[in-house]
Amino acid sequence: MKQCLDRFFQITEKGSTLRTEIIAGLTTFFTMAYCVVLTPNLIGQGNTQIYNGVFFANCIAAFVGTLLMALLARIPFAQASGIGLNAFFAFTVMPQIARIAPAPEGLSADEQLIRSYEMALAVVFLSGLLFILITVLGAREAIIKAIPKNVKLAISGGIGLFLAFLGLKNAGLVVADESNFVGLADFSRIGSIGAKGAILAFLGLIIIAILYKLNVKGAILIGIAVISVISYLPGIGVATIAPGTFHVDFAAQAQDFVHTSLFGFVRGFGHLFSGSNLFSAIATVLMLLIVFSMVDMFDTIGTLLGTAKKANLLDENGEMPGMKKALLCDAIATTAGAVTGTSTVTTFVESSAGIGEGGRTGMTSLVTAVLFLVALVAAPFVGLIPSVATAPALIFVGVLMISSIREVDFSDITEAVPAFLTIAMMPLTFSIANGIAFGIISYCLLKICTGKIKEVSWVAILLSVIFILRYALIR
C-alpha cells in the first residue's frame, strides 16, 4: 500500500515522505477547520434548516474539491467554500436576488430567506459552469501568463502578509481601533480573555518557530495542539466547552440537507426567472456572475501561484505545471458545491500551512479530504479547536512566505510600484484578488505612460479594463 501511494503521488521523487505528507494534511485541515462551522453560520443567518444543510454541503464540497486536487492535479492544496465569498453570497447576493424576484405574499421570514438562498445557489451553479468552460478553453491559463513576472513574485509575499494579518486578527493581537483603524491588544487587562488569548497565540508562534528551527517534524501541528490544550486548562478560560456540544442530531442535520440544500439551486432557477421583470433578473444574474468569476478566479490564481512557489512547484518562468488541472478542480468543485448547497468553493490560502509543514504532493490533499468527510460526524470535536491555536500557524506561514519579496526587482519603478501594490493591497483590503487587480492596473498604466507599451500584453490591458469597470460599476 505504501509503495502504491509513493508511486502514484511521486512522494519520494518530490523529496517528501509519507509521514511528512500525512502530517501536512492534518495541519492543513486543522488550520482551516474553522470553515466547517463558520460557513453555515454566515450563510444560515440564524436559520436552522439552512445552517444544517450548508454544514453538510460544505463538508461534502470540500471533500470533493480537495479529493480532486489529490487525485487529478496531485498537488497539496485544499478547497472549501470561501469565507469571503460566503459573506458576499449571504449579505450581497441573497438580498439583491430577493429584490429582483420578490417572494409571494404569505411566506414567513424563514421561508423568504430559504427562497433567496436557493436563488443565490442558482447563480453559483452558473458561475461554476462558466469556470469549467473558460478553464477547458484555456482562458484561465492565458490570464495567468499575462500577469507580469514581478507581480507574480509579489503575490507570494502579499499572501504571506495577508495570512499574518489574518492570524494576528484571529489571535486578538491586532484589534480594531476607532482612531487608527487597527491597534494592539490591551495587555494591561491581563485577566481578560482577550489579553490571555493574545498571549497564548504569541506563545504558540514562539513554540512553532523553536520546533521548526530544531527541525522537529510537525512543528505547526504540535503548536496548534499545545495551545489548544492550554486554552482549556482551569484558570485560563480562553476556550470552554459549551453545554450540549457533543449532542448533535445527525439525522435532523441530514434531513435538512436533503430537503433544503441538495439541488436547491434547481428550485432557485424556478424562483429566479418566474417574476414579471425578466430583463432585470437576467441583468442582475450576469452582473453577479462577473463578480463571482473575477473574485474567485484571481483568489484561486493568487493562492495557487503564491503557495506553489513556497512548495517549489513553479518552473523557471514562474508558471505552475498542471495549473489547468488545478483550475479545473476548482471549477468542478464550485459546481458540486452549488449542487449540494453551498457557496463558491475555492482553493484555501491555509493550504500554505500544510506546505510549510513539508507537504509536496497530492497525498497531503488526500489526507485533508478524508478529514473533511470525517468532519460530517465529528463536527463538535473540530469546533473545539480555538482560533488562538490556529492563529500562530497562519502568522508563522506568513513569515515563511514573505521571503519571496527579495526576488522582486525594485530597481525599476514601473516594476516596483505594481509589486508593492500587489503586496500591500492583499492584507489591507483583506482580498488576494484586489492585490492582483491593483498590481495589473498599475503595471499597465505605468508601462503605457512611460513608452513601454510593448512590454504589456493585450490580455493584461483587457484585464485592467475589466477590473476598472468592476470597481466603478459594482460595489
Distance between the termini: 52 Å
Q: Biggest β-sheet: count, sense, barrel?
A: 2 strands, antiparallel
* Strand order across the largest sheet: 1-4
Q: Structural class, please?
A: mainly alpha
Quick one: how many beta strands? 4
The overall pLDDT average reads 87
What share of the residues does DSSP label as strand, in percent? under 5%
Radius of gyration: 22 Å
Q: Output the number of helix runs.
A: 20
Helix content: over 70%
Global outline: globular
Low-pLDDT stretches are none
Could you explain how this protein is built, in words?
71% of the residues lie in helices and 3% in strands. It is globular and about 65 Å long. It is an all-alpha fold. It has helices at residues 2-9, 18-32, 34-44, 48-73, 83-100, 109-136, 139-146, 149-171, 193-213, 219-231, 250-261, 264-272, 278-310, 323-340, 351-356, 362-382, 387-401, 413-429, 432-449, 458-473, and strands at residues 79-81, 174-177, 181-184, 345-347. Helix 8 packs antiparallel against helix 17 and helix 18 runs antiparallel to helix 19. Strand 2 (174-177) and strand 3 form a beta hairpin. A two-stranded antiparallel ribbon has the order 1-4. The chain has a two-stranded antiparallel ribbon with strand order 2-3.
